[in-house]
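Limitations
The C-alpha cells in this dataset are predictions for the assembled complex, not deposited experimental models. Users should treat interface geometry with appropriate caution, especially where small molecules or nucleic acid strands are included. An illustrative entry is reproduced here so readers can see what is and is not provided.
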Amino acid sequence: MKNKINIAVVGLGQIGNYLMNELISKKKDIELKTGKKINLVAVSAKNPNKKRKFKINRKIFFRNPLNIIKTKKIDILFEAIGKSDGISKKIVVNSLKNKIHVITPNKALISKHGDYLSKLAEINKVNLEFEASVAGGIPILKTIKESLATNKIHKILGILNGTTNYILTEMEKTKKSFSDVLKKAQALGYAEPGKPTLDLNGYDAFAKIRILSALAFNNKISKYKCLMEGIENIDSKDIEITNQLNYRIKLLGITELINNKLFERVHPCLVKKDTYIGNVNGVMNAVITHGSPVGESILQGEGAGAGPTSSALMSDLLSILRGNIKYSFGIPDFKRKKINAYNSNNYLNSMYLRIEVKDKPGVLSQITNILAKRNISVERLIQIPDHKKKTASIVIITHKSKEIDVQSCLKNFRLNKNILKRPTLIRLL
Amino acid sequence: MKNKINIAVVGLGQIGNYLMNELISKKKDIELKTGKKINLVAVSAKNPNKKRKFKINRKIFFRNPLNIIKTKKIDILFEAIGKSDGISKKIVVNSLKNKIHVITPNKALISKHGDYLSKLAEINKVNLEFEASVAGGIPILKTIKESLATNKIHKILGILNGTTNYILTEMEKTKKSFSDVLKKAQALGYAEPGKPTLDLNGYDAFAKIRILSALAFNNKISKYKCLMEGIENIDSKDIEITNQLNYRIKLLGITELINNKLFERVHPCLVKKDTYIGNVNGVMNAVITHGSPVGESILQGEGAGAGPTSSALMSDLLSILRGNIKYSFGIPDFKRKKINAYNSNNYLNSMYLRIEVKDKPGVLSQITNILAKRNISVERLIQIPDHKKKTASIVIITHKSKEIDVQSCLKNFRLNKNILKRPTLIRLL
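Predicted assembly:
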C-alpha cells in the first residue's frame, strides 16, 4: 500500500457527519499509528446545502456517488447511506470491483448481501469491513475474527438493540406503558420517529445475529425463516409480574449450534435479576460469547449513536491502513459452508404465559386441561383477579416444554371464548 | 513473510503445555485463516522427562533455550517461562535482536522491560506481542491498540486479579475468614501454594495497570512508586459491615489522567452492589475503558488459566501471521512520552474506616476530634459493641476527604492507646 491514501465518504447523515469530523481531526494520530497519510478527496450526500458542523468543499462534493469512482482515484470508501439495496449496494459493488476497500456500518446490506460482497472483495484483493454494523462501538466482530480466532465458539447471545432495551428498562423503572415509553424514547432520540418497526419487531437484532453466526460458525449467512419476536406485545403487566418473580424481560438475540445445526433466534426472554445480562440496562448493548478454550467472554458498550459507530468505522480504517488484509468473514469464501437449520419446533424450554380470562368457574381447569393434553406441566401458577372488570390474569411458568406443544396450546387458547385476547408468551433464558 | 513459518516454544509449564496442544491441533485452522503453514521446530523446558499430555520429540528439544536461536532458523518464538529477568529476558532480547517475532504472556517482563524490548522490536522490524499478559483471555490490549485506536481514553479501571476477586467473593458468600478462604482457593488451584504475595498485595494487578496505562495514554511505562494496597488486611468483619451498607469490596486497578497527570493505583474499593463492577464475581476479570467517542466500554472474561491464556497467545500468533505488523505500544517509540505523576496526597475521595477501640467513655469523641482537626467530615458512623471483649468497632464513612489528611489521621490513631489495632481503610469507588 502506498503512503498517501485517498478516502471517500458517501452519505452524510448523523454517522457520516460524525465520521467526517473524526477523519479531519485525527489525521495526525492516524499517521502516527499507521505511517499513512489520509486525504479526503470525495464526499457525497443528497443535499450539499444542508446545515452541517463543517463546510463542505464544493470541489470534492458529488451529488451522485457513482461518479466518484468514475472520476477520482479512491483507495478506501466509507458507505454510510444505510439500506440493503439501491444506491448503497451499487456503490459498494462498484467500489469493490474497482479494487477500492469498503468500510460500512450497514447491517441491512451485510446481512442480506454479505456473502456476495465478501466474495467480491476477496476476488479483488481488497477489504470489506463492517465492525460498526453489529453493536456499534463494541469490537465484537474483530474479537471473533482475531482475538478468538482459534477458539471453537458454540454460542453467542446478546442485547443487540439499544432502543428495545431502553424501552424495557424504562417500563420497569417508571411503570409506564409501552406506548408512553416509546414516545419518551423518540423524544430522546433513542428510537426513530413514527413506528420504528424494525427495532421493535426484532428485525434489527436479527440482522446482527445473522452476521455474528456467519463469523462464529464459518457458515454462509443464513436465509432461514427463524424464530423472531419483538417487544410490541409486552405489557406493563408482564413487567410488573415478572419483576415480582425476580426476573427482568430482555430482548435477546441468540445463535448457537445444537447437534451441529444452526439455531438463530430473537425474542424477549425472562432473565434472572441477579445475572449479568439481567443488569445490562438502558441503551447499552452486550454480547456474550461461549468458546473453547477462552470460556465465557463478555463485551459491553454503547451499541448505537454516531460517536460509538464512528469509533468502530475508524478502527476498520486503521486496520486497512496497517495492511491487515484478511477475509471479511474470517476464512476464504469457498471454505464457508452452509449449516442446516435446527428445527425450532423441537426447542425445549420453560415458558412464561399470561392469559387474560373471564373470571368465572371452570376457566382455570379448561386452561390446565389444554396444557395437560400437550404434556406441558406447570411449575408455577398465579391467578390475579380484576374484580371490577370481572376478569383475571392467569400467569403460568411451565417446566421445560417443547416449542411445538406450546404453540399448539396457544392455537387452542384462541378458540376458547373465555380467553379474552392472545396470550403473552415469553421464553425463559 | 514466507509461507512456512518456524515456531519455537520456550517453557513448558501449565501455559506452555496447553499452548503446545493448541499449536499442534489447530495447524489447519491457522492455515485456513492466514494462508501460512506453521512448523514447530524447537521446544525448550527444564526437564524433558516430565510427564506431559504429549510426547516431546527429542530431536527438537533444547535444554538451553539460547541454543535454539544459535542452531535453528526461527520466525516466531513463544516465551512462556515467566519472571521479569534472567533467562526469560535473555531469550526475548536475543530473539528480537535476531529478527524473531516474540509472543509472551509475561506481565512481569513487560511491565519492567517493555519499553526497552518494544524499541528493540521496532528497530529489528519484528513484533513483540503480549495480549495474554493482561487479563488472560480478554482481548483488552488489542481493543485499546486497534478497536479504540482513535479514541481519547481518559480512564481505565478493572478487576485484574482473579485470585483476589475469588477470595473476596468467597468471603462474602461463606462468611469465612481470609485465611480459610485462601486455603480453599489454593486447593482449587485459584491461588498459588505458600503465600501468593504478589497476587494478594496488589503487585500483580499493578504490573497490568502499568501496561494498560502505557497503551491507553501513549506514555512510557511508569516507574512511579504508587498507591498500592492488597487485600491481606480485609477482615470478614469488613465484608459483613459493608455488605449491610449495600457495598461489596473489590480489589481494583485504576489508571487515569487527572489534569494531564498520571494517577495509577491498586487498592480495595467499596463498590455499590447494584453496579456492573460490583457483580463481577469469582475468578472473573473485567476491564472498563472510558473513551471518547466510544463512551464506556466493558470487557469481561476469564483472566487466568491455561485455556484463556492460550487463546490470547494464539490470537497474537495469527495477528503476526496475517502480517499485522505494528508498534508494540501502538505508536513509534520516539513518540511515547513521559507523563508526570499525579500527587496522590491530593486525591479526594470518600473513605471507609473501621477502628477497633476499647469500649469506654470518651473514646468516640477522641476519634471524632482527630477527624475534625484534619477537616474530615463524617457522613455515616456506626458503633458496634462487643460486650464480651469490652471493645467496639467504630465504622465511619467520610465525606470526600484528602488522602493526605486521612493518612495523617491514621498516624494519629496509632498513638492513641484506646485504639486497639491499625484501623482498616477502604476507599469508595
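Some entries come with short summary sentences. For this one: Chain B has a mean pLDDT of 94.
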